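Hey, I'm writing a tutorial for new members on how sequence and structure tokens pair up, and I'd like a real worked example in the thread rather than a made-up one. If someone can provide the structure for the chain below, I'll link this post from the tutorial.
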Amino acid sequence: MGRPPKLLLVALAAAALGALLSVGLSSSHSPSIGRVAPALPRERLAGPPAQAAGRPVLVVFWASWCEPCAREAPAVERLSLTPRARGRVIGVDWSDTLSGARSFIRRHAWTFPNLRDADGTVGNDYHLPGLPTSFVLDASGHIRAELRGPQDERSLSRALAMVG
């Protein structure tokens, strides 16, 4: 009877490791990779106007009720302040209340452009697998990478550097 629990433990550990390794990796199997990115929402929440046309950008989908988004928030702000990424990070609040979204932006002292996807339509157009999810768009507006789950500043920076 002692063996099955050990085997089960090993199997569970292997499954957990596989899940950890897959979180955050750009997925070439995503239905979004390579396509022209859907239009971003028009409603501006905070920050300067979003300017995605003609230059590479990182689009970060988040929500105030998303705990992993809160863990990722400091890294996104730090990246947005670097010379390489300045003006190239755009947040999109997905399926959230206006008060919750504004509170989240204030709490995390975000200074980059943030847009509001109140009914979730734009996120659905991007085939969001969950939150947070970031998309790297090249200068021609094509989706080149998708990062699932909370990222650190380094992984976000590397993803953005892929497209210039």
